[in-house]
């Protein structure tokens, strides 16, 4: 039987279409927690992360008083110790926003809440959700999407991939897999299948919505 609030972890490597998929869940009326948006909020002028990040990485505050993400990326890319320091600052602050979201979803009577978390497996978030959806796409499609944004170099893209759990491993550990490389209509149908399976109480093994 479905839990009063089933927490559905949504994840996928960079460029796989995770944000588009999250929007599809929201379109179906499910509350969606956006971890990236939470980070933007705490990086914004007056945000909780601004002072501690400026202290740890001097010069990353922009002219507007918020964190300049490009400068922060430059400060930590390729530096494992700096990356760990960044995560130690940011993750607890993001956790506060996630708990607030869950409380609001419960108060609103939602039956499923989607937690859109890019590093779900890497940060142990998979242990705090009831089922997991991994968004995937062919490698060539992924690279094309990322580089088309014009926001990072090939080296930065490679560094991000090196930090993320491989797509094949994510798919192996998922309850559901949604392939965005086959068009939006196909992806939406997969989203609907996930919701239907969860509401039917079949979220534990995800057999009906796995797409490979």
Describe this entry's structure for a reader.
The chain has 212 residues and is an alpha/beta fold. It folds into two domains: 133 residues, P-loop containing nucleotide triphosphate hydrolases (Rossmann fold, 3-Layer(aba) Sandwich); 76 residues, no CATH class. It contains nine helices and five strands, in the order βαβααααββαααβα. It has a five-stranded parallel beta sheet with strand order 2-3-1-4-5, sandwiched between helices. The longest helix has 28 residues.
Key features?
single chain, 5 strands, five-stranded parallel beta sheet, 212 residues, 2 domains, Rossmann fold, 9 helices, 11% strand, alpha/beta
Low-confidence stretches: 203-209
Level-2 CATH architecture of the largest domain: 3-Layer(aba) Sandwich
Reading off the top of the CATH hierarchy, the class of the largest domain is best stated as Alpha Beta
Strand content: 5-15%
The total strand number stands at 5
Order of helices and strands: EHEHHHHEEHHHEH
Helix content: 40-55%
What is the SS-derived class? alpha/beta
Total discrete domains: 2
Question: Numbering strands along the chain, what is their spatial order in the largest sheet?
Answer: 2-3-1-4-5
What is the mean pLDDT? 90
> Over all CA atoms, what is the radius of gyration?
18 Å
Gap between N and C termini:
26 Å
The backbone outline, from C-alpha atoms, is: globular
